[in-house]
């Protein structure tokens, strides 16, 4: 189209936008760590103490001085005297002297004098009962069998090194170590790590408010029965879902009439109340031009990018009004959702102060057809994943799924409802070949 | 270890468990579609009406009878008479007769008599003003320029086929079509599809309650300062996070003493109140045996799998008590979280009635080292993803990240905190090679 010349691809368009945004100053709040899943840390976190704070056994077995086991083997065991059992959850009230040992359980605290643990299955017990000697030949040594005999001698059948089968003090994390930088996503593992160190509360970033404005004289709220010529508002809700999925808080401003004044007034209110504003413009060229005019009039520097070299989504508008991003998305629901994924998610990450690049969850699959694309343009294809009849090949997962494009006009929301994900054909490619292994980004 | 002979790999273990579970009868609730992101549909959903309900233009241009454009080209345009403009959001009050046309905007309703739309850029306008004729040669035809002239004739420079640039009635979705089966995940696209059809509320599955019990005499609540020999409870919170991420509702029962009676009483209460019970057993063999005994005594058929051929996580126990799954996970936090991911997420999907196989979000990456593994055993390796210095290759994403294993004892929670994901080495592989492209499952 003549109105879109020399368009930048999405990555460069986004970079241009980011260069015009100030560093985010996210608001923070302190919440229970138990409810912090999916939130973003607001501060660097350091370990208040070492983890563990005492030497722990990683196996069920016998606490020993490693030196006492040197050279031990099946044919030439080391003989140690059992002096007791280490309790769980308390300091052992015994001390291992040379040629002594004590029973220890997984997770138990190593007794003073011990520096290693021999696994139960590499030990045997000598029973001195009555006259004569009964030897349990390589039977499984169990805690019960060991404790049921008087003053047993333990046969050690394997040598252990100093520290073997032991977690050392601070081996999980050292005191004062930086455990998470500011801007980290709290996943189940982080919840566990924080709890392990006693952080039952954590300071996190407040979800940034993202204003959402729909426009179009043909658009009515979803609860209304559309008259001929009218359609229900989809974009307010798909974008709100996307905002929520990305860690933001959606503020829906409803449907604004196709007039410059109404548009300016709605955007202006949203800019006051939110950190970023999304507008799904009416679909026509004149509606888009009006959106761009409103952005230009509401703050500096205004529109930075008008039209992006991508399909769907070419008519996307990226602007900044006085430090806040304002994004005009195409009115058609597929374009709005696809370009929301491309542009909105990274901008919310930035507002949250997220420190790492986004790992886009995807699934590897084998493409079922040839796909062509214009050089310079980034294409996003809706994909249905089909379990492969051949089955998976292994760790790579290649061939576990077939990637079957869903063709259809780009404005049909049910092509996305039917899709499992999106396939990106980057600007420098002119297509993809049947049989190629591709990453399908889950939606 | 002698106590674990002939172990099944995780997939077969899970299958054995699933065969012993009755079909789930999930409770349902009706909620606002706007808040339904991430929930699971409880019923099949059919379209109450076609979408769209009227023929819509997909472009800005001129509504025509396609037959009037046949053979039209730059050198031999078709000449049509402009009779007006189609309004947005209403039925056009004009009818296209032969050789007539009307302006139409993207998303507008096709006027009676028209069956196709010619894009604005493939048209020119003849201005009959005063004497003589002024022809705008291939200038962009804009709505304003067209409307500013009196009784203009439109030159059509391209032929269109019947239905071209038009979304037909029911082309997005037909009346009564099955739009989503029961058991479907509601993503942003589904929120949009539901709203498009006027479903402002939707019946979804109630999150199943999953009881979580920790045990171990050495374990104290996270808010307590551990004494020597004690550690804080991590597993209750990592598993609760995992449950919540998987769509369940976690019910934490706290830390239970290492005694059969205490364990039985806690599991029994959780079985009464929840759909599934997770227990992180004390780490020692005797604590695991006690958990198994408790499961066996509390219902039929009791323990089905005691020990799984996986690392970490071998001591995992899978059981069923009177129709409800009871899972004993190893006490060490990495095993508990990894095996929670392997076993708990699929079981919650089942309780939710999810109809499709799980698409595990992952990222393709190039392995930085050789990894060996025992045949028959499934290994899960913690992986740090590192942006590749070479950069991405394109659509497949191969080489965009390097997959660097994090080595460390399997009980260090901070190996998972440092990891981006997990790499599975399947039972039939004996290892993976440096440079191989692998799927790293995001955690």
From TrEMBL, chains A, B:
The record's keywords, sorted A to Z, are: Magnesium, Metal-binding, Molybdenum, Molybdenum cofactor biosynthesis, Transferase
One GO biological-process annotation of the entry reads: Mo-molybdopterin cofactor biosynthetic process
MoaB/Mog domain spans which residues? Answer: 211-350
Q: Does the keyword Oxidoreductase apply?
A: no
For this protein, the record's SMART domains field holds:
MoCF_biosynth
The EC number(s) this enzyme carries: 2.10.1.1
Check the record and name the CDD domains matching this protein. Answer: MoeA
Q: What does this protein do?
A: Catalyzes the insertion of molybdate into adenylated molybdopterin with the concomitant release of AMP.
- Look up the record and name the pathway of this protein: Cofactor biosynthesis; molybdopterin biosynthesis
Top enzyme class: transferase
Please state what the protein is called: Molybdopterin molybdenumtransferase
Q: Which family does it belong to?
A: Belongs to the MoeA family.
